[in-house]
Fold this protein.
Amino acid sequence: MTERILFTNARLLDPASGLDRAGELLAENGMIAALGPDLARDGLDEDVHIVDCAGCCLAPGLIDMRVQLREPGDEHQETLATGAEAAVTGGITTMAMLPNTAPPIDDHALVEFVGRRSREIGRAAIRTYAAATKRLEGRELTEYGLLAEAGAVAFTDGVRAVADALVMRRALSYARTFDLLVVQHPEEPSLSAGGTMNAGEIATRLGLSGITPAAETIMVERDIRLVEITDGRYHAAHVSTAGAIDAIRRAKARGLRVSCDTAPHYFALNETAVGEYRTFAKVSPPLRSEDDRRAVIEGLKDGVIDAIASDHAPQDQESKRLPFASAEPGIVGLETLLPLSLELYHNGSLPLLQVMRALSQRAAEILRLPGGRLKPGAPADLVIFDLDRPWRIDVAALHSKCKNAPYDGRPVQGKVTRTVVGGRTVFGLDA
Amino acid sequence: MDSGAANDPFPHRHLLGIEGLSRHEIAFLLDRSDVYANQTRGAEQSTLLRGCTVINLFFENSTRTRTSFELAAKRLGGDVINMQAQTSSIKKGETLIDTAMTLNAMRPDVLVVRHPESGAVQLLSEKVDCAVINAGDGSHEHPTQALLDALVIRRRKGRLEGLIVAICGDISHSRVARSNIYLLTNMGAHVRVVAPRTLIPAAIERFGVEVSYDMKKGLANADIVMMLRLQTERMHGSFVPSIREYFHFFGLDYAKLAVAKDDALIMHPGPMNRGVEIDTEVADDIDRSVIRQQVEMGVAVRMACLEALSREARTATAP
C-alpha cells in the first residue's frame, strides 16, 4: 500500500531552485511526490498522514560531509548508532564519516559493514569515505575502484594530510580513472608538527607552540597545482585560513574541479576561545585569528566555500582533561550544526537559502548523493525547524556519547522540530 | 643517417625506432617479413649473411627477443655472438661508450642492442661504424616488436588501415606501446590507449590516439586488443593499488572482451602475467589469441630487418 504523508503549513525552502514560500509537500513511499503552495487534495486517500508544520521551515535534510564516528574501534566514544541518533536530533539526514576508525576503512568489507549498519540503525544515512592510502599511512593507494563500488563516497586520509606530493599526485590521478573525489586535510605536517594552536600573540602569551596559517595555505596551493596536472577532483576539508580560501577562489576561477568546506567553529569562534588553555576549543586545524574568521564568512558569502560540515569529532573526558598540548583535538558538532550555521542568517551575514545550500545541496552535489533538494523524485529526507526559536546549547543534553563542545550555555536561534528520512519521522521534538 | 640511393626502399643505416619511418618503409619491411614468413624452413639454407657478424648486446635480460634475433641471423647464414651485460666488462664498470668503441674495433656488421635506459641505443649507434638495431631501450621504443605485431595483424586481417586497435595497460612505461602507436597510427589504424590514469603518460593524445580509462569503452568495437605486461613493482600501491583491483577493472576477460568485435584478435608481447592483465582462458583461446603467432612472426621480421640493414656490409664483402 502506498504510504502518503502530507506536510502542511510549511515554509518551503529549496536552495537549488531558490524556492522560499509557504506551501505543502507530499511524500509518497519515501520520495517527494509533489510540493507547492496548495496541493490538490482530490486524489489523496483518506488515510494520508498529515503533518502540520505549524509555519516552520521545511528544507532538504542536512547533509554533513565530515564527521568522525568511532566505530569500529573506539565505541566508548561514539558508535554508529549514537552518532546517527545525534545526527537526526540535529536535522542531519545523511552524513559521511571519515575512515580513521580502528581498523581504518581501507578495505571494501568495512565500507560494506558501515552500509549494512546504517540500514539496520535506520536513522540518518551513514556513508563513509575510504582511506586514500593503505592504513592511512600516506604511502600506497587503496583500491579506489572496488571501494567506490562498495559504496565509499570519496577518498581521504581523514585527519591526516596526504603529505607526500607524489602520493597525492597519484591519488588524484588514479581517482580520475573512475572520476572519484579526493578529500584532503589541508595541513603541511612538517610545518604543523608539534603545534597545538594558531600561531600568534595568544599562543606566544600562553607559551604554546603555534601552527602557522601557512601550513594550510601551502598544502592547498600545492594540491591545486597537482589538480592542474592530473585533471583530478579535489576537495579541501575544513578550511580555516584567508590564504587557503584565496587559493581556492583563484583555482575555481580557472575552472579547476576544486571545492571546500568549513566547520561552524571556524566562523563561530576564533583563537581567543582557547582562553586559559580550554582544551574543548582545541581543534585541528586550530581556531584562527579574527581576520581568518571573517575571511571564512566572506568565503561562504561569495560561494568559494561550498559547504558547512559539522567536523564532529567526539573525544572523551580522558582525552580532553589534559594539559593543552597533550589533549586531543576535536569538537562534537552534529547537534549544533544547524543553530550555529543559522547565526550567519540571524546576524545578517548570509541569506537563509544560502545557509541552507551550504548545509545540504552543495554537499550532495560534491559527494554525488541523491538528496539535498526539494523536488519530485528526490528522497523525502527533510528537516523541519523553527527558524527563530531561541534556546541555549546544553552540552549535557547532547545525544552524542561525548560532550566535548565549547558552546555550553551559548544562546542560539533555530531549533529542529522534526527530521524525516525516506518519508519516515526519525526525530520529533515534541514526540 | 640516410645513405642509400633515391630509390632505396629503406634508406636508413640503423633501426632505432618506428618514429621517423615513412609509411612506405614500414610497408617494405612488412612485405619482406611476409616473404620470410612464407618460406618453408630448411628448404635451402640462406647465405645472405655469409661472412657477416651480428652481435647481440643485451644489457637487460631477455629470452625471446635475443633468441629470435639469433635465429633470424643464423637462418640467413650469419655469425652470431651473444653478449650479456652480466658476463661482459660492463659489469666491471666500463662506460657504454667504451663498450661501443671496443665492439666497434671488432668490426661487426650489425649490433642488436637492448638497454634499460631510453636513448642508450641511439647513443651507442653514434659511436660505431656498423648498423644498429634497437631491441628495446628503456620506455622509448621496441621497433621490431611493433613490426611483428603489425605483421600478425596484417596476415590475419589483411590490412592495418581503418582497424580499431586498443592498447591496454602500462602505457607510461612501455616501449612496445610507443612503437606500436607510431606504427599503427602511421599506417592508418585507429588507436586507443586504455589504462588507469596513473599509467597513461602526459600528452599521449598528441600522438593521435584516443585515451580511455574504461575497458568497456576502450574495447568497444575493437578489431585488435593488445595487452601490455604490468611490471610487478608498479602493482602494489604506487601506480595501481593491487592486482585484485587491476584485474577487476583492467584485466582482459571474456566479459570485457564481449564489447569488442566478434573476431577481435588478442595480442600480448609477453611474458604474460596470467590473472593480472589477462585471464588465462582468454590468453589460451585458440580462436582469438594470436600470442604464439607473435613469437613466430618475430623471427621473420628480424630476418627482414637484418636483410635491410646489412646491404652495405654485404656489398662490401661480396666476392
